Each structure stands twice: as C-alpha cells, then as structure tokens.
Amino acid sequence: MKRNIGGWVMVGLVAVCCGMMGSCKKETKSGGGAPPPRQAQKIVVGFSQIGAESGWRTANTESIKGEAAKRGIDLQFSDAQSKQENQIKAIRSFIAQDVDVIAFSPVVTTGWQEVLQEAKQAGIPVILSDRAVDVTDDSLYVTFIGSDFIEEGRLAANWVVKATGGKANIAELVGTPGSAPANDRATGFREVMAKYPEMKIIKTQSGDFTRTKGKEVMEAFLKSPEGKQINLLYAHNDDMAIGAIQAMEAAGVKPGVDIKIVSIDGVKGAFEAMVAGKLNCTVECNPLIGPALFDAVEKLMKGETLPKRTVIEESVYEQSQAAEAIKTRAY
Ligand code: GZL
Description:
Layout: H1 7-21, H2 25-29, E1 44-49, H3 55-71, E2 74-79, H4 84-97, E3 101-104, H5 113-121, E4 126-129, E5 143-146, H6 149-164, E6 168-174, H7 180-193, E7 199-206, H8 211-223, E8 232-235, H9 238-250, E9 260-265, H10 268-275, E10 281-284, H11 290-301, E11 309-311, E12 316-318, H12 319-325
Helix pairs in contact: 3-11, 4-5, 6-7, 8-9, 10-12
Bound molecules: beta-D-galactofuranose.
Beta-D-galactofuranose is lined by residues 53-54, 56-57, 130-131, 146-147, 181, 209, 237, 239, 264-265, 285.
C-alpha cells in the first residue's frame, strides 16, 4: 500500500489536482469511493537483486534482508538470476503491487529508461543500490547508494605501481560486460596505467564476476602465447581472483609470487587467500548497503530530500594486514 509521501499537505495537493484533472491515481485506484482501510503502517519496498554470482552479492543480500527485518519494513525481494529481463519484470510487478519505494541493483547500465518511466508515471520513487544506470533523465531515480568504482580501479592500479615500480605485464579479469563496476574499474585502472608506459595489459577478458568463469579464463590466459609473460593479475572482483588462483596452481604457477594478484571487494575468501600468501591486495567494496538503503527509504517516506549520490567509504588491504584484519571482517 503506497502512502502519501510528505504527509497531509500532499493529500491536499492531490485532492486539488484530482479536482482539476477530473481523476487521478487515488480515485481511480479505489474506484472513486472511500480509500481502503489503512493497512498496518508498514513501509513496503520492492527490491530487485541481480542474483547470487559472488560472495559480495551474498553479503549484500544478507545486509538488505537483515536490515529490512530489523526495521519492520515489508521487503518484496526478487532474485533476477543475473538477467536484466527478470529485473524489468520484477520492477513491473512492484509497480502493479503499488509498493511505496522500488530499489534495485541494475545488472547492466543500459536498457532501464522505459521501465523507470513507468515507475515515475506510477508515482513510485526508485533508489539505485550498488550499481548505476545510464539514463538521459536522472529524475527517473531519487538517489544512488554505492561505491565509486572508478576510484576502486585507480586504487588497484596504484597498488600495482607500488608493488612493481610501474613495470608489469598484466592479465585482466573483467566483471560482467556492460555493468557499472566492470566499466568503471577498467576506466580507473587505465587512468593510472596511462602514466606508466611499462605497465601493460597484455590479456583481458570477462570472467563475469564468478569463480568458475575466472578459473576458466585464467586457464586460457596461461595457455596463450603471452601466458609466460604474465606477472600480474588484475581481477575486477575477489571471486574471479580466487578462481584464477585455482587455475594458476593447477598449471604449476605460484599465485601471489610468480603472478602477483590485486582484486576488488574485500570478501573473506580474499583475506584467507592473502593469509595463505596467494593474493597480494584487495580493494574493499563494501556490500553492507542495507542500513544506508533503508535510511534513505525512511527519509523519503517522511518527505525529506536525499542527495543524488551516497558513496560508501572503503579501504585497501595488503597481505601484511590480512592476518589481523580477517579477525574483524563483517563479510
Ligand atoms: C560491486 C558489485 C560487484 C562486486 C562483485 O558493487 O556490483 O558485483 O564487485 C559483484 O563481486 O558480483
């Protein structure tokens, strides 16, 4: 049940508009009669999650579900199995259910204009969680809550400069093609790399953010003519790096030694790999977005304005810090 955002003033405005326009959502929705009995005053949020492709995503889902339960928010949660068409279907079902707020983590940046127009038409605010969208009209979403992926790419490249003196033959495992983190982590890394002519990406391919694909692609990298030249792996997430570590070991290559590895996310598996000396650096990308997301929802329901973008603060962790840091990691 959607509630008037901004209290009675909004009700008055809606009444005036309805009078002027002859009909509007409130009247058409309840057939012109008295509004339906007030449901329990629960905020209803429709959330479309990408899937369960990585440890990061699992932690992100747990944070969102846990925080909604803690705050007594009615969360309508949908898992899209990493398919954009399933996210679009879910958003349309949230519109049909007339939820108070729609939030989602868009699997790719393009193809959202139409369905976000439909949400706007229905008067349902949309919050972007974790990943951004490319739309010509940024009024189609209220706010974006997530990380600065370009900065994460810069931080990863800066670590490579520090670890290699700016001389490296790099293999790159790219995230999901067309996704904001894959696009931006590539951009940020290359921005720094441009200053170091002897820092070269000699192999690059998508591992789709999964361990399985990361392992498969790293196997192919190692078998390629350039395989023996690779001395550094840049993985857009820890799960692909962990898959690549398995491929390296199977090929008799020492991960973290023969090929140094920098990845992004900061999931527990990355800290375990660093403690084992198999991964050298992970750039944190905090998945625990639940509290910030539902702070934004509650502010929205009170009619407060939100910043267009809320960036989550993050750190960089090296092997030397892993044994201590792993004791207090929240995900
Ligand atoms: C980043 C997030 C990415 C993670 C991956 O915010 O969208 O998607 O880096 C996850 O692990 O699959």
